[in-house]
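In response to reviewer comment 3 from the previous cycle, which asked for concrete evidence that the modeling workflow produces usable outputs, we include below a single protein chain processed end to end. The sequence was submitted unchanged, and the resulting structure tokens are shown without manual editing.
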Amino acid sequence: MMQKKKWFVSYAVKPKEQETKTFHTFIEGLDVEEELEKHIFEIKELMELETEEITVISVSLV
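The workflow returned the following structure tokens.
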């Protein structure tokens, strides 16, 4: 059985004509790529952003 893992993620958000803001969060799951994709999609929807306005800076297993 696979065990859930937890990652610390840093990412930058640069909406059009605004300053870049850096955010940090923890995500959990079995696959980091799948969980990161879901998280980024949620951020895009919530903040009404385009994909290119979000840049992942780092992902670290904790």
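Strands lie at 5-13, 21-29, 54-61. We consider this sufficient to address the reviewer's concern, and the full set will be provided in the supplementary archive.
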